[in-house]
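WARN no homologs supplied; continuing
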Amino acid sequence: MDLRPKTKRILERQMWYHATTMVGYSNIIEQGVKFDVSWGSELDFGPGFYLAPDQKMAEDFILRQISFNRQNGLESIFPPEFFEAVVMEFEFHPFPYFERGELKVLDLNNEEFATFITDNRIRAKEGLIHDFPLIYGIMSDSNPAALVSMFRDGELDKHQVITGIMERTIGTRQLSIHVQELCDTLILRKAYEVAGRKELDINDYYNKR
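OK structure emitted
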């Protein structure tokens, strides 16, 4: 498969960013990176550890997620740590995996991408339904969640969900890791709170390994 020049440049990057909350950050520091922590969740590429190719993309994602949770009244249920945005910077080199045929690329919002997203989301309770160790592609944003909800309520069929995804213009990108042995190769370089840009102490991440 030939890569688009932009995609090749991104896959040659060595620093990738994981957006989470203070709670998620604390769990990673304590337990390490786990690819199956999101098992059962409706995600674009299935259960995995997701990374963004740049800091702003990661920051924007977690801030949107926190804002959504606040709008749905979750602040009255969960402690403040669930609403503190954190970005973690990892060193990882995905391009060699592409060269070895171990990285699936879905960087166009076409029928292949939309079908793949739909299958992963409507079959989320089955866990991982593909055998790709790594996937790089566009991020579907919040649109599929609404479409899949309508599918489950019988308002849309699968083809209509796929068509609905393809109607969106998508600019964000993501890399997902779906095997633990690759998660174990990630090198945490730094972490910081998005609000105030305060850098966090990552020493315990290595002390506990």
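The first strand starts at residue 15 and ends at 21.
OK
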